[in-house]
Amino acid sequence: MNKAPHEPLFHVTKRDELSPVKAWTIRIVAILLSLVLCGIITACLTGENPFSVYGSIFDGAFGSERKIWITFQNLSILLIISLALTPAFKMQFWNIGGEGQALMGALGAAAVMICLGDKVSNGVLILLMILASVGLGALWGLIPALLKAKWNTNETLSTLMMNYIATQLVAYYVIVWEVPKGSGNIGIINPQTEAGWLPQVYNRYLLPIIVAIIITIFIYIYQNYTKHGYEIAVVGESRNTARYAGINVNKVIIRTMILSGALCGVAGLLLVGGINHTLTTTIAGGEGFTGVMVSWLAKFNPIAMIATSLLIVFMNRGAGQISTNFGLNQSFADILTGIILFFIIGCEFFIRYRISFRSSARKEEKA
Questions:
Q1: What is the DSSP string of 294-349?
Q2: Which residues contact 110 (CB under 8 A, 6 or more apart)?
Q3: Which of 80, 119, 216, 235 is geometrically suited to a Cys-Cys bond with 267, CB 3.0 to 4.6 A?
């Protein structure tokens, strides 16, 4: 006697395209659930009221005028790197090297400030910093693009490995330029003359925000209203179709990665010349990796990236404030940030797929 095949408890099926309203509803619910879980965990560890925990999250990002400026400054750097990665992602070239490209941009700016700070005028110095940052960032994007175009190497691995090379290059030059010798860091660059420090616009925070706005507008127009943007979209849909249409796929890959690396280099320039005025191996703060998530969550839409970047920066600063207020170390802030990001990423599964349990599946079959 043959037994009936065992029916699984649930089925996972791909959804039809969800409306933007439903998709964002799922994301908002995921964010709220992550906040509830973070509040419960913090309350259990500290004995504090969960609502005071949520108040700390808001206070960390928007609790004072200075905190607001810092939040939007951090947002601008994350947004620039996310926008830089987006054209490559849209053509299905998985550029995971934003961190290294930003580091190389930072290295270029620092090198010019240190080596030429007392040799040329400040205007010329800043121009050379821009060229060095954009050039090194573009080079760091060009190398994996050439490897992909010539030998079809895996771009995820090559761009990821370039991050490690960039980190070690920065570590080497930090030792070369360290002040004082043996300190392991270079301190503030040109503190007396401020040579190479980017000019302030209203205050020390606004310049990166203005640059981020300009790049957002540029990428939006570039992707949606230019021939290059059209070619990127076609290559992303199908490289064979692009070749059939007469598009030089290798040329598009190389050109797009040069643009991607150059924009990451701009972020490095702002970090050294406009914000920190120093160079460390961690100056990019992992934003090259976070930018991957920002771009992906926004579906490569430059305007939507403003919202996703703000959300992530808000959560990061809020988690840090929780640690400060309740006497917990920074690792706890990282745990809370990880929980929040896990919920944000995980909700994309429920946007793309539907889970049907055994009983509901039978009802659908009968219907």
A1: HHHHTTT-HHHHHHHHHHHHHHHHHHHHHHHHTT--HHHHHHHHHHHHHHHHHHHH
A2: 173, 177, 186, 189, 272, 278, 279
A3: 80
d(CA 189, CA 196): 9
Rounded CA gap, 117 and 120, in Å? 7
In one-letter notation, the amino acid at residue 292 is: V
Show Cβ contacts of residue 36 under 8 Å, excluding neighbours closer than 6 positions.
50
State how far the Cα of 200 lies from the Cα of 11, in Å rounded to an integer: 57
In contact, 279 and 174? CB cutoff 8 Å = yes
How is residue 203 annotated by DSSP?
B
